[in-house]
Specification:
Transferase(Phosphotransferase), domain 1, Methylamine Dehydrogenase, Chain H, seven-stranded antiparallel sheet, 4 domains, Phosphorylase Kinase, domain 1, 887 residues, mainly beta, six-stranded antiparallel sheet
Length: 887
């Protein structure tokens, strides 16, 4: 047996290891000896595993072993062996864990298990793996020998955290059950041949998806009674893992349902991206299978698409999303005549793999027939993309060339998806092909859109009336005008009624009391109030309005002919995320009643995190909150930032950088945004709901109104003589003079398209900004007086520029989320150096004209980044609720 020559020998009964007493030897092998022991302090029996001396000979390995063992001890999950203690005995490390009574899964895997028993065991293993993966621990050596079945049929996963730390094996390569290790750039990666994922066989870095593959091989073995991959030698077995597909599990065991076979096959995909992307997803799918009889599962589960030989037109399926199989069965049954009404069903959809749903808004749209979802998800680099997922599938697919997508919406026939990207309103065919541009409409400012059967798209933009444009392309035109009699400041969230001539939309007024859901004709000025609510709205057959109020999703009877409500609203979901200051709620519905919503908190949780130029995290400022627009004070001791509370109210707060305690700076209801420090740090200017304001940074005194216009401040001139700002439709950067009687704005930059994110140089002679004039957002510099000469700073896209304190370097965020530095020499002309990537961020693209998600110290050495703290929660899919209301 491997390694026993270096062991101190079998310990006799009565030997003390620390406080523990050895009772008897339970077993020995290449990875150590396991003893039954007793902890006299707690009066309980334990298992004590002593590891080889090689562990103590390598201090780094010993340190990592102790770290991993402690991490495993912190798991505390019913399907993971509980670790009580770690230590050393005669130079050899040991682990103390709970003592189990039962047998390993290997002893039960000699022939096919009953399907329900196999699913039960696999589900428990998936639950345990999910808990470990949440802690960042990957097993890397999952096999039947490491799965223990207790007397009460509970599965326990053994040896967590040890696999990647084990010493190299030297045993003969003939047996396909041997333990193998390979040297990789990241260290030792261990696995058991026959259960190793393809990436392990290649010696590549592995993650939690290697455990999913291993669990797939185990599940296959339990169902079929044979190994998924085996050969005459280790080399043959590894070749099979890399190149061959195992025989169909249903051929070996006809009692296996198609649904279970597909779940097993999905685990065994060669590509990491084609497998389940989390063990939570896998556990969820297995749990749903375990609640149904084989017959029910066989009859109701739709075929999965994807896999190496089943590619769709767009891209190979790359990320798997959890769904409730039982829910899909119920939904499909509801589409056919049935003797009894269908029941409402809810199930979850997680963001695909390592990405998360957009942090800047709820960008999910349901196709008109309710069969597909289009949504925006953001990868680790911060680049949002459009994804499409059939409701009856477990696979989501990214849409090529949809970087920085948002505001997704469907054509009425479901053949196209519309969205906003790179300053354009675009559409893409669901069947495949590149996106097509519809219009250069107000770019960043577009917030939502709707499409009727006559080929008209109506969209909303920040602080603007609704606009219309032909779906085939053209120049947008206003649908109507803002109603100044009730101080209407914006129209948003349009949705066509079935006739395609009338629109429902949210009207935001300066006072929430005058806001609500309105209806109007496309070609007539006949707007009128329908419902008093600060929410987007959807029409659902056979006659309901769906909207949110106080976090509750409501369905209210609605006569579509007269466009009037005909009954009281009925709750259909609770705890729905809502953003009252924007008049939106996190939901979308199809006319068929398939509804998707988020019950996560109504704001994204972020951390203000310090990074150095290499991307090393140096600490945080304050607690987690929904932050935006952090700005460091000129002396670097304070940060001013927007915070959105759980009710959706947006205010400005001040924090001491050293202590991190927030102090509220603005108190009025509504939106307070885009704070800017004066050069001496004594004043802060910001954009109120409808006015440009300023107040002493101490909080003392009264607010001063700098302008009654809805202007967004960008930066203060270094001498304090003026304030750069952009209007709601940002094609210009202007200067508001301060300190004198004349406050007539002066043009600084005139753009053809969106032009924003302005920052003035430390000497006041230059201004940096982002513009989409070229068709892609780029960073430019030009003189701070009205000038047509400008120099491009960014390469391949960039936004949110910041100056170093001496004006010799500009920082910006590239379109892939990389924080980038560019050296500059500025005189009469600008000499722009080569951009240098510094480190990746999760900053999510130019989705709002006034947002800045980081700041930099004057020496350019430290960056305060507003970093999303966690992956957003899954969205909830609700089907068949109209049928329940009809009863």
């Amino acid at each position: 047996m491997l390694g026993l020559l270096s062991w101190p020998g079998v310990l006799s009964s009565g030997t003390r290891i620390g406080p523990y007493e050895i009772l008897a030897l339970l077993g020995a092998g290449g990875m150590g000896e396991v003893y039954r022991g007793r902890d006299p302090r707690l009066g309980r029996e334990v298992a004590i595993k002593i590891l080889p001396l090689q562990f103590s000979a390598d201090p780094d390995r010993l340190r990592r072993f102790e770290q991993e063992a402690r991490a495993a001890a912190a798991l505390n999950h019913p399907n993971i062996l509980a670790v009580y203690d770690v230590g050393q005995h005669d130079g050899s490390p040991f682990i103390v864990s709970e003592l189990l009574e039962g047998e390993t899964l290997r002893s039960r895997a000699k022939s096919p298990l009953p399907t329900r028993e196999a699913v039960e065991y696999a589900t428990q293993v998936a639950r345990g793996l999910a808990a470990a993966h949440d802690k960042g621990i990957v097993h890397r050596d999952l096999k039947p020998e490491n799965l223990f079945i207790t007397a009460d049929r509970r599965v326990k996963i053994l040896d967590f955290g040890l696999a990647k730390l084990a010493p190299p094996a030297t045993a003969s390569p003939a047996a396909d059950t041997e333990t193998a290790t390979r040297h990789t750039p990241s260290g030792f990666v261990l696995g058991t041949i026959g259960y190793m994922a393809p990436e392990q066989v290649r010696g590549q870095d592995v993650d939690h998806r290697a455990d999913i593959f291993a669990l797939g091989t185990i599940l296959y073995e339990l169902l079929s009674g044979r190994r998924a991959f085996e050969g005459a030698s280790s080399a043959d077995t590894m070749s099979a893992i890399l190149r061959e597909q195992p025989p169909a599990v249903m051929a070996a065991n006809p009692s296996v349902s198609p649904g279970l076979a597909r779940v097993t096959e999905r685990c065994l995909e060669k590509s990491q991206a084609a497998r389940f992307q989390s063990t939570h997803d896998l556990a969820f799918a297995l749990e749903e299978l375990s609640t149904r009889s084989d017959a029910a599962a066989t009859s109701g589960v739709p075929a999965l698409t994807g896999g190496p030989s089943r590619r769709r037109t767009w891209l190979s399926p790359s990320l798997v999303v959890a769904a409730s199989i039982a829910a899909l069965v119920g939904w499909f049954a509801s589409l056919r005549p049935a003797p009894s009404p269908a029941r409402p069903v809810r199930f979850l959809v997680n963001p695909p793999g390592s990405v998360m749903f957009s942090v800047s808004g709820f960008y999910v749209a349901v196709s008109p027939d309710g069969s597909r979802l289009a949504f925006v998800a953001t990868g680790p680099a911060g680049t949002p993309m459009l994804w499409v997922r059939a409701v009856d599938s477990l696979v989501a697919q990214p849409v090529p060339q949809s970087e920085y997508a948002r505001s997704a919406f469907w054509s009425p026939d479901g053949r196209f998806i519309g969205f906003v990207s790179y300053g354009r309103l675009r559409k893409v065919a669901v069947s495949g092909g590149p996106p097509q541009n519809i219009t250069e409409a107000t770019t960043f400012a577009i917030t939502s859109a709707t499409w009727n059967s006559q080929g008209v798209i109506v969209f909303s933009a920040l602080a603007s009336p609704l606009r219309r444009v032909a779906a085939s392309g053209g120049t947008p035109a206003f649908v109507g005008a803002l109603d100044r009699s009730r101080n209407e400041v914006a129209q948003s969230s349009p949705t066509f009624l079935p006739d395609g001539r009338r629109l429902l939309y949210y009207s935001r007024a300066a006072s929430p009391l005058n806001s609500g859901i309105y209806v109007r004709s496309l070609d007539a000025d006949d707007a009128r109030l329908v419902v008093k609510a600060n929410s987007n709205v959807a029409y659902v057959e056979p006659g309901y309005l769906v909207y949110a109020r106080d976090g509750v999703l409501l369905a209210q009877p609605f006569d579509v002919r007269t466009a009037t409500t005909t009954g009281e609203p009925v709750p259909i979901a609770s705890h729905v995320s809502q953003y009252p200051e924007l008049g939106t709620a996190a939901f979308a519905s199809s006319p068929t009643g398939v509804t998707v919503y988020s019950d996560a908190p109504g704001s994204q949780s972020n951390r203000l995190t310090w990074f150095d130029r290499t991307g090393k995290a140096l600490g945080t400022v304050g607690d987690s909150a929904s932050y935006a627009n952090p700005r460091l004070s000129p002396d670097g001791k304070r940060v001013v930032v927007e915070i959105v509370d759980v009710s959706g109210n947006r205010d400005i707060w001040l924090m001491d950088v050293a202590r991190g305690r927030p102090v509220r700076f603005t108190f009025e209801p509504g939106r307070d945004a885009s704070p800017v420090w004066s050069p001496d740090g004594r004043t802060i200017a910001w954009q109120g709901t409808t006015r440009l304001k300023a107040k002493a940074s101490s909080g003392a005194g009264v607010e001063e109104t700098l302008s009654n216009e809805e202007w967004f401040p960008d930066d203060w001139l270094p001498d304090g003589s003026g304030l750069l700002f952009h209007p709601p439709q940002p094609r210009q950067i202007r200067l508001l003079p301060l300190g004198g009687p004349d406050r007539t704005p002066r043009l600084i930059v005139q753009g053809e398209s969106v032009t924003t994110h302005a920052r003035v140089s430390p000497d006041g002679r230059w201004v940096a900004y982002a513009s989409v004039d070229s068709g892609r957002v780029e960073v430019y510099v030009q003189r701070s007086h009205a000038s047509t000469a400008r120099w491009q700073v960014s390469a391949e896209g960039g936004f949110q520029p910041k100056w170093r304190g001496d004006g010799k370097e500009i920082f910006y965020v590239a379109t892939d989320g990389m924080l980038t530095a560019v050296p500059l020499q500025l005189d009469e002309l600008a000499e722009v150096g080569k951009p240098k990537p510094l480190f990746p961020t999760r900053i999510e693209g130019p989705v709002a004209t006034s947002w800045h998600q980081y700041d930099v110290t004057p020496d350019g050495q430290r960056f305060l980044v507003n970093s999303p703290e966690a992956v957003t929660a899954p969205v909830v899919v609700l089907v068949n609720w109209p049928a329940s209301l009809a009863r």
